[in-house]
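Entry 14: structure prediction run for Protein kish. Input pasted below.
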Amino acid sequence: MSAIFNFQSLLTVILLLICTCAYIRSLAPSILDRNKTGLLGIFWKCARIGERKSPYVAVCCIVMAFSILFMQ
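Run finished. Output tokens:
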């Protein structure tokens, strides 16, 4: 089943996108900062969510990891 139709897989993909964008922005901020608008602006917005809401994102990652490892 595709990640689009499975809600748990969709949440996993979104969390991975947020964490990856925040990590890339911490290493090389110029890559994401030059594309703040348009289609590539999604990655900049994900990086901002990962930076500003990092405790909540971390808790969501832990809960998702627990559910994937022990609930399936």
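Notes: The radius of gyration is 13 Å. Will compare against the previous run tomorrow.
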